[in-house]
Design a protein that fits this description.
disordered N terminus; 429 residues; single chain; four-stranded antiparallel sheet
Amino acid sequence: MKKAPFRSVFLCLFCFLYACFGRENNQSFRIGRITLEIRVNFLYRYKMFFKAECERTPAYRGGSTFTLYKAKRNRKLHRQINAAGLIYNHCIALHKRYYRLYHKSLNVYALQKHLTKLKKIPRFSYLKEIGAQAVQDITQRIDRAYKLFFRNLKQKVRTAPPSFKKVRKYKSYTLKQAGWKLLEGNAVRIGTQKYRYFKSRGIEGTVKTVTIKRDALGDLYLYFVCETAENEVLARTGKSVGYDFGLTQFLTASDGNDREAPLFFKANVAAIRRAGKALARKKQGSNHRKRARLALARLHKKTANQRKDFHFKLAHAICEEYALVCIEDLNLRGMQKRWGRKISDYGFAEFVKILKHQASKTGTTIQKIDRYYASSQTCHICGAQNPKTKDLRVREWICPHCGAIHDRDRNAAKNILKVGASTFFGEAS
């Protein structure tokens, strides 16, 4: 850790003492609830100042996706992805057979050794289609999936083990240190073949892995995982916010800066239904059915791209404005089962992932609170809980203790901020 100068240490000590004892000595702190934001902002400025003075921002990994040019040579990449799918299914079959015989999971190193021996047999020539590192990545992913499955079994969590996948629906394979090389301009060498891609932006940092992906339309993409030496930390504002995920709107903010989301699937559902009906009428194996399937896939891809674009823009705006963002750790799968398509259309889970990624780049802190905390039922002023608000149809309610009138979602957002801020600064101390 870098030593802070005497002046900085003195200032940090002063800030800490003021944050701890200023509440009793300053009249404004005795006013109550209206000074919560002031105290949170002040504490956050102190913490961010101390971090900036005493330590460097840690390195992080980010990814960049680029589209490959369409060319005949891309057929080789399609064959390699199909080979990766065959290898995946073969490894799953070996795992299942081993468990039937010995009632335990197959060791990943024993599996890799077995696959190396199989390469010498002509029947398994597809093992040579992709590099050895890609095969290792497949076996490691399967091993992690099985370990997670057995851990969930011990914790009595109902999950399914890794299963077989259709080869034509298999999506990608990953190359780590070897098997690829970046060339000048917008070119990359994969194996012995040279490919060009649409370089819409520069590649930041050092490329660690390259993943070749394909979508339902058959388009190919390059996904570079890059490591940078330092995060791009924006100027800290000290502002904090609590967000409540809702059904009427996307995010309800504690400061009133709500975020609405267009329902992209709902906007395209009529066209998707027509395309689905057209696909169902086509004969199996015909070219007409193939074209109808691609038309349906294009509509789904359009919807997903619209939603992803909205998520990225919103996450960027939030991380640029706020230093501390408090959210609930919701059971999104349960919400999806209960409310169905609307939750899927919002894409809360994907948004949280994108928000975390953007926060790691900008230095914003994402603080999650316990999913079982009754944020909607608790008065953010006096702390009294009203069990009558469990009914989701109750959008406004009056606190029986202090008489305050609450909007359900707004009150939840303010409680999320209060609990998230206290948890964050409690962990920091």
